TrEMBL record:
The keyword Protein transport does not apply. It is an enzyme of class 3 (hydrolase). One of its GO terms (molecular function) is endonuclease activity. Belongs to the endonuclease V family. The gene is nfi. The keyword Metal-binding applies. HAMAP family: Endonuclease_5. It comes from Streptomyces hazeniae. This is Endonuclease V. The record marks 91 as: Interaction with target DNA. Keywords: Cytoplasm, DNA damage, DNA repair, Endonuclease, Hydrolase, Magnesium, Metal-binding, Nuclease.
Amino acid sequence: MDVITGRGTPPGAPWPRTEAEARAVQDALRARVERADRAPAPGAPGALVTGVDVAYDDDRDAVAAAAVTLDAATLEVVEQATARARVVFPYVPGLLAFREIPAAADALSRLRQRPGLLVCDGYGLAHPKRFGLASHLGVLTGVPSIGVAKSPFLYRHGPVGEERGDGAPLLDGEEEVGRALRTRAGVKPVFVSVGHAVSLPAACAHVLALAPRYRLPETTRRADTLCRAALRAAP
DNA sequence: GCGACAG
DNA sequence: ATCTTGTCGC
């Protein structure tokens, strides 16, 4: 698919190397997040949903990314791609995108079909600058995106019902920035936030449709397994 | 200034 | 993210 980042670097400007440069990029791109929902309906037959994940080996300075596209209705794999690269940015809370996107965009660019939705590991609008990894990847590709995280990051939430589908607002003070969503009865919830061109209710519906059995969406499970395999594949 | 902090 | 075995439970 077409990724305007080409091999992972935005056109015109080199990838940020310092925290200050990275924060400036977030400030510049945040206005490009679309609010209107143009993602396919959750579980829509034939709709394509792509999970993206990245694995690291800091000792070998290596990263591997994977993009796995599933049919939204059957959750079967339609196509998948991987990419390997060097670590270009350290992990800094709030700047995760600058560490993950170069390799992730490379893997995405190797997909033949453009998906209707991207599912990222981490957050979108639930971010200090309201521009987390999911929003960043959504804006760069133009594809609607959501973020599904495994921990609440900087945010708080009230009690979440014990049944699958129960949820509670993720709050930054008074502002709702996402949702703690139970995908499996009695299991720790996941933390969903809007990335780009998707509403929060729709994002939650997508997550539930993508996670019929396990805590995490099948998209992220598949992408996680694949990028780990790709990392150890080529020493 | 110090601690917390998606992956 | 990653270092790591067995074990409890559906």
